[in-house]
Amino acid sequence: MVVDGAERRAFAEELAVEAGELALSYQEQGDLDVRAKGVLDWVTEADLATERLIRRRIGDAFPQDRVLGEEESESVPQAGSGHATWVVDPIDGTTCFVSRLPSWCVSIACVDGGGRPFLGVIRDPGGAETFSALTGHGVTINGHDISVPNRGITDGLVGVGHPRNAPDEPTLRFLQRLFAVDGLFYNCGSASLALAYVAAGRLVGFFESDLRAWDALAGEVLIRESGGWSTRFMRDGSMTTSKPVLAANRGSATALWDMAREMFPGCAGPEQHSAE
Ligand code: IPD
Ligand code: CA
Ligand code: CA
Questions:
Q1: Which ligand is nearest to the CA of 215?
Q2: 262-268: long-range contacts (C-beta < 8 A, 24 or more apart)?
Q3: Which of 79, 117, 164, 210 is at 20 to 30 A from 237, Cα to Cα?
Q4: What is the pLDDT of residues 84-106, one digit of tens each?
C-alpha cells in the first residue's frame, strides 16, 4: 500500500497544534484529575482527552491506518503489517506538565507498512513551536526549513533522560563517561522534546537507556532528516519493546557512540550510517 507522506505530514502538523492547545487548556485551568501509574509517573485527564482527540482525528482522516498510543492499549499493530501506523504520545513530559513546567510536548510519528518510520511531528505548545520532518524532505520549525551546523560534544549540552522504572547503572555510566570528556547534560523531562532539540541543533545529542516507541520515533525521523544520526528504534522489528536510544548532531555522533555502543548490540553506529 502506498502511503501519502505529504498529506499525512500536513495533517499531523495541524493535529499536533490542536492537540497541544487542548492539553495546554487543561494545564492552564489547573486542578487536574491526576492518577499515579508509578513513582513520579502520572496520567492526567489531559493525557486521556488529548489521546482521544488524536485517535478520533486519525480515524476520521485515515480510517485504514493503525494507531499505537501511550494511554489507550489496543491490539498492537505488528511492524510490516502493510498498514501505516501512527505512534502517538499525547503528552510527553507529563511530570513537567503536572508540575506546571513548560517542557512537554505532543509527539506524533507515522511508520509505513514495511515498518519504516517516515514522519515525525513534535509540538511544543508552551514555546509555540512545531518541529516537523518527512523522510527526504528535511526538517521545518513552524514551516520554515532549518539547517543545522556540526557541533562537537563540548559545543553544547547533551540531553540525558532517566527512565523511572529501569536500572540506574546505564545512565550513571553514560554520565560518568560524558563528564570524563568535559561534557554536560540537560534533562528537560521530555524525551521527544529533547530529540527535537537535537534535530534543531540546540542540544548536541541525547541518550536514554529505556524508551518506548511513542517517545522516540518522531524524534528519530527529525534527527535523521536534520543530517544528524540516531539509533533506529525499529532495529529489532518491534514497535512495542522498550529499548535504549542514542541520537546526535553529526559533529558529536562518534564521540557519543563510543560512550554507549555496548548498550546497542547489533546496532549500526554513525560510521556505518553514511553507507545505509
Ligand atoms: C517520559 C518522558 C521522560 C522520560 C521517560 C518517559 P511521559 O514520558 O519522556 O522524559 O525520561 O522515560 O517515560 O511519561 O512523560 O509520557
Ligand atoms: Ca512519553
Ligand atoms: Ca505520555
A1: 2
A2: 263/170, 263/209, 264/231, 266/235, 267/231, 267/232, 267/235, 268/232
A3: 164
A4: 999 999 999 999 999 999 999 99
**Which of 145, 167, 193 is the C-terminal boundary of a domain?**
145
Pair 14, 138 in one domain: yes
Average pLDDT, the chain: 93
CATH of the domain at 138: 3.30.540.10
In a domain, 150, yes or no: no
Atom of ligand 1 nearest to the CA of 42: 14
Give Cα 8 to chain centroid, integer Å.
17
**Structural domain ending residue among the three candidates 145, 179, 195:** 145
CA of 142 to the centre of ligand 3 (A): 23
Are 12 and 129 found together in one domain?
Answer: yes
Q: How far is the CA of 92 from the centre of ligand 3 (A)?
A: 4
Does one domain contain both 167 and 136? no
Please state whether the predicted TM-score (pTM) of the whole model is above 0.90.
yes
Q: Distance between CA 175 and CA 180 in Å, rounded?
A: 8
For the domain that residue 165 is a member of, what is the CATH number? 3.40.190.80
Are both 162 and 135 inside the same structural domain?
no
Q: Which amino acid is at 225?
A: E
Q: What is the mean pLDDT of residues 261-274?
A: 86
> Predicted confidence band at 165 (pLDDT cuts at 50, 70, 90)?
confident
Most ligand 1 atoms within 8 A of CB, residue of 54, 190, 212 to mutate: 190
Average pLDDT of the segment spanning 144-152:
96
**Structural domain range at position 90:** 5-145
- Identify any residues that bridge with 256 across adjacent strands, giving them in sequence order: none
> What pLDDT digit, counting tens, does each position of 214-266 carry?
999 999 999 999 999 999 999 999 999 999 999 999 999 999 999 999 999 98
The pLDDT > 90 percentage for the chain reads: 85
The grid cell for 72 is: 489507550
